[in-house]
Structures are given as C-alpha cells and as structure tokens.
Amino acid sequence: MIASLDRVNIGFAALQMNRDLGFSASVFGLGAGIFFWGYVLFEIPSNLVLAHVGTRLWIARIMITWGLLSVAMIFVKDSASFYVLRFLLGVAEAGFFPGILYYLAHWFPGAERARAVSWFMIASPISIVIGGPVAGLLLQMNGVLSLKGWQWLFLVEGAPAVALGFVVLFYLTETPDKANWLDADERAALGARIRAEEENTVAHHRVDLWQTALHPAVWQLAFISFAGQTGMYGLAYWLPQIIKSFSGAGDLQVGILSAGPYTAVAAGMVLVGWNSDRTGERFLHVAIPCAVAAIGFLVSPYVASPLLALLALTVAATGVYSDRGPFWALPGRLLTGRAYAAGVALINAVGAVGGFVGPYAMGLARDATGEFSAGLLLMAPLLLSGAIVTWKLRASPALSGGAQDV
Q: Distance between CA 40 and CA 34 in Å, rounded?
C-alpha cells in the first residue's frame, strides 16, 4: 500500500506542483513516467540479488531507499530535478513487486496463488481510496512551516516506507520452514506441497535461467503486462487532473472523488481472483477484464455527464486492475526457482515500460489537443490487444498443458 501511495501521489501533488513550478502536461507526464525507466533497468538485477541474499534483507533495503527518495521530492525545483528524483525513485524501488511475487510463491500453492496475489495487490487501489482524501487534506497545508502543500504530501507519505523497511528487516518470515508460528506438521505439509509443484513444473518444462529470456510465452506475458500497466498508470497518474477538468472541484473534493473508482477496483480484484482460484481458470479471468477496461476507456470521452464520465473511468480502472491476480498466477506454470525470479522480473520490467508510455502519452495528447480524450482513447486498442493475446495463450502447451495449478 505504501509502495503504491508513493508511486501515485505525484498525481495528487500535480494539482499544485505543476502550477507552482510551471510544468506543462508533457513535462509532468515525462517525469511521472520516467520512474519506470529506473525500474526497468534495475528490475532483473534486483530480483536476482533478492533470490541470492533473501527477501527480508533486500525488501527492507528497497523500502528504506525508496522512502528516503520519496521524501526528497520536496526539493524539486525544476524539470531537471523532477526527472532525476523520479528516475532514482524507480531505481530504488526496482525489484519490489516481482520480489514480493517471488516471496509469495514460497508460501502459496498454485491453486491459491491468484487469490493471494489479488489480496496483496488490493493494497494498490486501497492506497488511493485512503490516499486520495489524505492527499487532499495535505494539500490544504499549503504555507505551513513555509512548505507548499505538495511538499507536505511527499514528506508525510514518504516517511512510512522507511519505518516499515525496518519492520520488514526484523520481522518478515523468509520461508515456511522458518515460521515459528506454524507447527512442525504445518511447515512440513506446506513445504512438501510447494516442492511438489516446483518438481512438476521442472519435469514438464525444464526452463532454466537463461532460456527464460528467450521463451515465447514469457514475452507474450510481458506484452500483456505492458498493455495492462500502460492503462493502469496512464489513468492513475492523471485521474486527479481528469476529475478536476470535468468537475471543477477543489483539491480536497478531487481527492475524495478519486477514491470512488478505486473502491470498485478493490472489490473487482477480490472477486476476480477468488473466482479464478475457485474455477481453476486463468486466461478468461485476464482477457475479459482487459476487454472491459478497453470499453471503459473507449466510452469515457464521449459522455457529457460528469457522473457518467466518472462511471466509465471506474469501469476502465476496475478492468485494468482486476486481472492482476490471475495473470501473475500464470508464470508459475512455466517457471520455478531462480528462473521464476528472473522471468517475473522480465515480465514486470517490460510491463513497467507501459508505466512510462501511459502517463507520457497522456501528457503529450493533453498538450497537443488541450483535452484528455485522445490519451484515453489510445488505451483502448492496446488493452484489447492484451485480451486477444491472452485468449491465444490458452492454446499454448507451455501454459495450458503439463504444469497446472494443483
């Protein structure tokens, strides 16, 4: 939740920061998205280090450094410092999400993994549900102790990552065999089940660390991740400004209104993840939300009512987030061990390029047309393509045959 908050709080800060620092829409879009280039470049090395030194130590390092850099955003003075700090924030956070997926793979068998990932990722929309109104309140502190409201936003929301980093360092249980809060039989049963799944995956596919980067199914999954993250961050970083443009609301009201779509997102993620685990089906639970998101993006620019526009954006957001649990259950059908760590990092790294493309494309379209419509319309065909690729993957022996979620 803190990771998501420190990623997207830039969207709320922009309500004041862009005006104070004279940023155009394209400057903001580039700065918001450049975070992901740092993330992309260091994603795979970070996850390989994590697999070597352990989750507890490396996740703690990631959290403490990203927290400090998030707080350092209060020193942004111009576009150059904005770009540099956003890039460094991406470098610091690189490996966090795939590292957590790698960690969860040690704890949750495949048949329960979509639900586990969904419950983990539900923190992302919840962070906006909580963070939107909080951001609105922090922006009201403009001028307190000679700090701007947007500076208070970065200061208050960056500090918890540092504190929680030390909590992770001292309290995170690395693997089930080290869990003193499970009895011996529980540790043995869980460990045996996960080892059996890993052996099954190796027996059917035997994809090693180096083959991972060349496997067609890995790159197809990477494209689906790219499409999803383009829509996800293209909307998340710009939603406060989009809402302000069609509602004319003040900063606090925008923060409250921004919470609405992500309440639906949280419900959608839990429901889709639960149903995917219940049925054992993954592909339709990815393809259908992608298609629903495409419809939401396609409709949103053409409705005149602010309420209907917000509803269409809610549909888009719910679709683009809801497939995450089932989607991240798919790589475990093909990869295991260090190959899983590298493969997930590669898929997420390519997806993170979408985190750059989405916000930047929205900014360019906004400067070129004076409206958000063109940027929103760009997301629809990309997400529809993601749905089609997912549908075609159903026939892939690498993911649909052999190693199953058992």
A: 10
